[in-house]
Amino acid sequence: MSFLGIDVGTTGCKTCAFSQDGTLLASAYREYDYSVPRPGWAELDARAVWHEIKDCIAQVSAACARDPISALAVSSLGEATVPVSREREILGPSLLNFDERGAEFLDELAARLDDGRLYRINGNTLGNHYGLTKLLWRQAHQPELWNRTHKFLLWGGFVSYMLGAEAFTDYSLANRTLLFDVNAQAWSDELLAWAGIDPSKLPDTVPSGTVIGRVSASIGHELGLSPSVAIVTGAHDQCSNAVGAGVLGPGDALLGMGTFLCAAPVFERRREPEAMLPHGLNTEHHAVPGRFITFIYNQGGSLLKWYRDTFAAPEHRAAQEAGESVYPRLLAEMPDGPANVTVLPHFTTTGPPEFVSGSSGVMAGLRLETKRGEILRGILEGTVFYLRECLERAHSAGIDVTRFSAVGGGSKSETWLQMTADILKTPLVRPKQTEAGALGAAMLAAVGTSAFASLEEAVEAMVTPGRAFEPLPEVSERYESHFERYKMLWPLMREYLQGRP
User: Could you tell me if 101 and 137 are in contact, meaning their C-beta atoms sit under 8 angstroms apart?
Assistant: First the structure.
């Protein structure tokens, strides 16, 4: 038997089938784009994405005829919801977290409930990037759609529902709406009343790794899946990535190196708001029972892409035409050791602790002899310095990291991984299986159907550690003065912004 992990993101979906020992049996990937119907809007065509997901499932299912899929689970983007009918009809597009719709409700919501109380219940603070304000916008501006909708489903629950499961969501995704009570592990009556949201429009909540149905006969026939295939709740994508990388307990942290450079430490006991709020740290259920996770991030991969398109567009086009990636060549141009260029990575709205908008990136130390490879190294160092500053704040909240597991496209660069270990002064390991999101979902499917007694047992069987990167003391010491220079940049930029007309 095999287990299917479905990983649904903002710009693409991947399905992977794994054997019980973690061997990748088959995979399929499809890309899609979000649309911008008006400036500031951003939405996914849920019908089109569902079509691509089905194509991926059918391709993998056909390749697994000799080792049929017995269970599946979904890892997905958070916040966004899809309106569906009782008949499992898709009623409209999915509004993404960076869609500006819903911002009109923030002031009124803030006046009714302060961040401290919201954090104590939900583990997050008010913002338009969560699902709540998008639901309020639809309720106010699309009343016909609102009334027709049976459930607004987060993407993991949506895919499961369309495959035949009942309408459920796991705790980690429910958290992204701002309406979930982390302690009670249920929708919060207080938050629902605060927002004026009818709870009947939301799915029921269950832990990750819970069987919520079976593949329907009709969809099974279409996709080549047996109706006996169990559908199990997955998790928010970063939580699923963590499971697939073996990041389960306190001291462990995921390092996602994709569009975002995201450090996600795991901890057991909820911290008081006073310990977390000043540092911009959220609290979310991990996919592991009794564990929580927080997210520290910046636009790491986006800055690498910006560098590619700004400094190496011709090489990138040539590499594309040859069916190759230009990144290995660009990364090979970086000098050894700390760069003489120091970069503040505020090229767009930042993550924790301040979520700064309206700032700008800074490159300090440019000279006529500066090569582009040194600029690239400075950019990557800046993204890691950002994480280090935030992780030091997490330490003051009692959240420590003794080991990172790195996944995502950026983890292919051993230079970036070693740099990260040196700056953070913390060991890094890169699992051999890089499809951590899909693997994590498959592991939840396996545990949910009792193929393993626990996620710890599943990690032992299905996750294989790869190369380890230990911090080099002499290099870490050299980085100290560079880190001190880095910490000077944001106060200077803030002073500049305050004085700008």
Answer: yes
